[in-house]
Amino acid sequence: MLLAKGRTLAAFVLSGVFVASISTFPVRAETKVPATEASLKTDVSSFHLDNGLEVVVIPDHRAPVVTHMLWYHVGSADEEPGKSGIAHFFEHLMFKATKTYPASEFSRKVAEIGGQENAFTSYDYTAFYQQLAPQALEMAMTYEADRMENLILNDEVVKIERDVVLEERRSRVDSNPSSLLSEEVNATLYQNHPYRMPVIGWLHEMEKLNLTDALAFYQKYYTPNNATLVVSGDIDTATVKTLAEKTYGKVPRRAEPGKRERPQEPEQNTKRTVSLADPRVSQPSFQKMWLAPSYTNAKPGEAEALDLLSEILGGSSRSRIYQTLVVKDGSAANAGAYYQGSSLDDGSFGVYGSPRGDATLKDVENGIDAQVARIVKDGVTEDELEKARNRFLKSVIFARDSQTGMARIYGSTLSTGQTIKDIDEWPDRIKAVKVQDIQEVAKQYLVDSRSVTSYLMPEAGTPDQKTEHQSQSSGEPEGGAPAQGVVQ
């Protein structure tokens, strides 16, 4: 399976409730979006089964396909100390045999009818999904409900799959300088919160994961009252309810995971720097990150303002950073900004860039710092805000064209402490953001003395030195905008 990083995970990593999920949809000319169009409301309905399972139905009858996604409200940030990687490891184990079916039979059944399936683990949730014909929905529900209750594990199964995830870590992280640096940066940015741990886990702790750990994790978290089922596509609520009661409704509520209380961050008062020089690096890159509230724990309006700030500052080719460093002075091969606000607890805000030509990492850093300082000092213009807001609201419209994207929007949001109402009202909250709100969050959170700066370099040296490996043209740097941790 794949350890995924960067913008390629936009469909999984749901920044700002859903903006990153839908950023891959095309954005057309800058025309104002009618207020009645910019909404995710599509006759979404929800209900709970007697065992506590929440079910969300998103009808979309444009194609004879359904997406079936089961979201467990547990991720790597919920792991016990010393057990890093157990959430992702257990995701793998869920594809093993049950009391009812042999290992991999579910996957074979999906493949036989031309369907698709996969699973992924993040800091705050673990999800399993299938995309198939509507008439196969009952089959998917039957198998998924079965492994929620009847999974069979033993020492041999655990050992074999543990070797698989260990090799995944070696091949995807330990052999990748950018991934190694990203782990160190997260461990520096988060001083106390478990987001500082990699989703895939630390190697020395992964090696010790055992059958007892796996069974305890299964019994505590893989219970219907700790999950949300999302079904989107060519289906209706009555049918989903009948099938859910017939399949998932038989699974007993066997544990009470309790409130998700995690260690929180102390006040941060230092500027920190993390650097890595490695001959395998082909393109040097710079990144600066700050802690920032998420949509779940931010004060009213703050997360929306941070989202729009990231768009104006460096979210697209129209942004200030890109236009200045990439287009006008040509000092950067690529540069931008991002806001990761989809987490249950504190998220992050970051800027990044990679030098081009004779420019150095320090030149790129200084150029980006200047753009941040301009917004802190002078704010943004009404025109910039209106265009950024329009791009967001258009993305909402395009999002409705993807039933899988809609399922991910609702599943991830409900798995991180928010509600269907929060999703429905997001466009209105974006419309309410004012230019002074954006300047205020920039002043409050983008404080240089509380930042973490990282440098990825191909050879030993300093950020103010030009390297022999720099790009001469625009392109995606190795250390570009990271995604919130997700492992498939």
Calculate the terminal CA-CA distance, rounded to whole Å.
6 Å
Strand content: 15-25%
Largest sheet: 8 strands, mixed
Number of distinct beta strands = 13
Class by helix and strand content? alpha+beta
Residues in helix, %: 25-40%
Physical arrangement of strands within the biggest beta sheet:
1-13-5-6-4-7-3-2
* Rg (C-alpha, Å): 23 Å
Mean pLDDT, to the nearest integer, reads 89
Number of helices: 15
Q: What is the string of SSEs from the N terminus onward?
A: EEEEHHEEHHHHHEHEEHHEEHHHHHEE
Shape: globular
Low-pLDDT parts are 1-31, 474-479
Fold and architecture overview:
This protein is an alpha+beta fold and 488 residues long. The protein has 15 helices and 13 strands. It has helices at residues 86-93, 105-112, 137-149, 155-174, 177-189, 203-206, 211-221, 237-246, 302-314, 320-328, 361-378, 382-399, 403-414, 420-431, 435-445, and strands spanning 3-4, 45-48, 54-59, 66-72, 116-122, 126-132, 227-233, 272-277, 285-292, 332-340, 347-355, 452-457, 486-487. The protein has an eight-stranded mixed beta sheet, with helices on both faces. Strands 8-12-9-11-10 form a five-stranded mixed beta sheet, sandwiched between helices. α11 (361-378) crosses α15. Residues 1-31 and 474-479 have low confidence and may be disordered.
Quick summary:
The protein has 488 residues and is an alpha+beta fold. Helices cover 37% and strands 16% of the residues. It has an 8-stranded mixed sheet with strand order 1-13-5-6-4-7-3-2, with helices on both faces. A 5-stranded mixed sheet has the order 8-12-9-11-10, sandwiched between helices.
